[in-house]
């Protein structure tokens, strides 16, 4: 197993972590019971995983309850993360959002379900446009000062939202967010447009959710065919947005690389994700032990430069404005980077000058 610091903190976590959305009956994402939960967590720990991520909304608390039961006697050896913000009631609208009342209620309920007196990483599951930002960040700071939470993080934020929040925390002298749990995969590289560079600049660690695009990158799905029985797509449909027709080219590239290493396409996809910039940990959401075993082996898979180039090129999402202009001005037109970091520009550099390119209509 590979180990890394959690963002810019001193806490050490496994580069592969265990997600728990599949624990519990309410979400149709695996429906694993207590016995299966116990087995999966034990299996993960024995293979070096020390980081478990859950959320109060997963099966409306059942996932946290199952995890809490499974961690009896060993909780102190692990890094446990959970989240709040999404609705926990169909009738009480105050059991939703990043408000003081909801966060305070949610953390107490998570502590009870997890059977612990502290949470290592407490995350907001999304931005709340209906609550003043200062109310949210002061409440999260209070949780750390009270000892209920060790570190705090965010999930599913835009880069400007993360920047606004951290800036306010710095100005007010509050505990800062150290991680961002975000979707990222070979068929979902939008994180690279802005958020990833924000994390590189600030030291915020990325926790990757759905690195296999809901199972699509396992390679078990074929164009023009029905999803095989028992698969996640057959039971719950696609979990993240991507264009299947265009994404099958990525699948074919994954299979070519996988064949070169005699491993599964899923293992290749995870190995690629593991070594992307600013990634602290990649969250695994396997429903079967054999899948989890294969996923964990991604930590030992070393991709060649040829492999990485092939995967990067086939999955390249393009560069939207203003990023292409920022890179054009900062990398292609400014002579200073070439003088200060000549090794980065030995083969043309991270961004080539686009001026003078012909347009063929």
Describe what this molecule looks like in 3D:
The structure is a single chain. With 361 residues, this protein is an alpha/beta fold. It folds into two domains: 3-315, TIM Barrel, CATH 3.20.20; 319-361, no CATH class. Helix content is 39%, strand content 14%. The protein has 13 helices and ten strands. The chain has helices at 34-46, 62-70, 100-114, 133-145, 159-172, 195-202, 232-236, 244-261, 265-274, 289-296, 305-315, 323-332, 336-340, and strands spanning 3-5, 12-14, 16-19, 51-53, 79-84, 119-124, 149-155, 177-183, 205-209, 279-284. Strands 3-4-5-6-7-8-9-10 form an eight-stranded parallel β-barrel, surrounded by six helices. It has a two-stranded antiparallel ribbon with strand order 1-2. Strand 5 (79-84), helix 3 and strand 6 (119-124) form a beta-alpha-beta unit. The longest helix is centred in the C-terminal third of the chain and has 18 residues, at 244-261. The radius of gyration is 21 Å and the shape is globular.
């Amino acid at each position: 197993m590979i180990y890394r610091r959690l963002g810019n903190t001193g806490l050490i976590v496994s580069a592969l972590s265990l997600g728990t959305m599949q624990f519990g009956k309410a979400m149709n994402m695996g429906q694993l019971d207590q016995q299966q939960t116990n087995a999966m967590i034990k299996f993960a720990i024995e293979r070096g995983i020390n980081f478990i991520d859950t959320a109060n909304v997963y099966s409306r608390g059942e996932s946290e309850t199952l995890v809490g039961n499974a961690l009896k006697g060993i909780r102190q050896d692990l890094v446990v993360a959970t989240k709040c913000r999404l609705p926990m009631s169909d009738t009480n609208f105050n059991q939703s959002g990043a408000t003081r009342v909801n966060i305070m209620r949610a953390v107490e309920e998570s502590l009870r379900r997890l059977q612990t007196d502290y949470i290592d990483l407490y995350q907001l599951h999304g931005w709340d446009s209906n609550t003043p930002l200062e109310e949210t960040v002061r409440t999260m700071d209070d949780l750390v000062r009270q000892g209920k939470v060790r570190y705090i993080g965010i999930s599913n934020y835009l880069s400007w939202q993360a920047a606004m929040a951290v800036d306010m925390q710095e100005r007010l002298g509050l505990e800062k967010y150290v991680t961002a749990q975000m979707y990222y995969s070979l068929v979902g590289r939008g994180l690279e447009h802005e958020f990833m560079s924000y994390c590189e600049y600030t030291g915020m660690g990325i926790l990757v959710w759905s690195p296999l695009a809901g199972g699509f990158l396992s390679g078990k799905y074929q164009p023009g065919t029905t999803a095989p029985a028992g698969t996640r797509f057959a039971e719950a449909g696609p979990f993240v947005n991507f264009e299947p027709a265009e994404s099958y080219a990525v699948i074919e590239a994954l299979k070519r690389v996988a064949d070169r290493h005699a491993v599964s396409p899923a293992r290749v996809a995870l190995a690629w994700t593991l070594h992307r910039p600013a990634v602290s940990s990649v969250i695994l959401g396997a429903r079967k032990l054999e899948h989890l075993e294969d996923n964990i082996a991604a930590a030992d898979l070393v991709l060649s430069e040829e492999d990485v180039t092939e995967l990067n090129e086939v999955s390249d999402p393009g560069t939207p404005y203003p990023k292409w202009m920022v890179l054009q001005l900062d990398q292609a037109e400014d002579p200073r980077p070439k003088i200060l970091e000549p090794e980065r520009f030995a083969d043309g550099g991270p961004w080539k000058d686009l001026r003078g390119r012909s347009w063929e209509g």
